[in-house]
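Aim 2, interim progress: modelling of the nickel (II) ion-bound target.
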Amino acid sequence: MHSISLEPLQRSEFAPFGEVIDLNADWFAINQGTTRRYHRLGGVQLLGQGGQGVISLAVAQRAAQPIAVRMLERHPLGSQAWIPRGLSPFIVVVAPGNSEGYPDESGLRAFYARADQGVNYYAGVWHHPLLCLVEGGQFLIVDRDGPGPNCDEVPLSITRWLNLDLNFDTLEKELQEGER
Ligand SMILES: NC(=O)N[C@@H](O)C(=O)O
Ligand code: NI
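Predicted structure of the complex, ligand included:
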């Protein structure tokens, strides 16, 4: 069975695909010191005519186990950021593009995003739609709205299964206790 192993989400490893949004990043004080500003957690790319940056809320079902990866998508006209609200760890699956403009399946990678990490996919990066690890997980999405085709989807040549070494029954407990 073709499986993909899980890697921890780290800025350097994810760099070819986008930015890691670190909710524990550095901050500076604003508003007479009453407020911390975690400035520029990520950059927004808006390509093509008439695009507008939009902020949306997603409330996700828990991804069915075992997690099957059968397709990938990309947004050629803009970046797409996923920022967890509360206890929403998730799985990020990405792949580089090949010279024919399709995913290079040999380069598929899967990252475990803790509840204090988000991702910001660069425009055109192949990724799997959201794979949330808890029921009702909430995310803010920052991406491009507007004219033009901004979601290419392609099937993978074979189904790949995520090789999760996570025990979902204890995952939320561990996250609440800050063990992950
Ligand atoms: N369509 C949408 O808002 N979500 C997908 O692009 C995704 O990456 O989950
Ligand atoms: Ni997407």
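Residues 3-167 form a domain with the Jelly Rolls fold (CATH 2.60.120.480). Residues 73, 80, 127, 129-130, 141 surround UGC (ligand 1) (CB under 6 Å).
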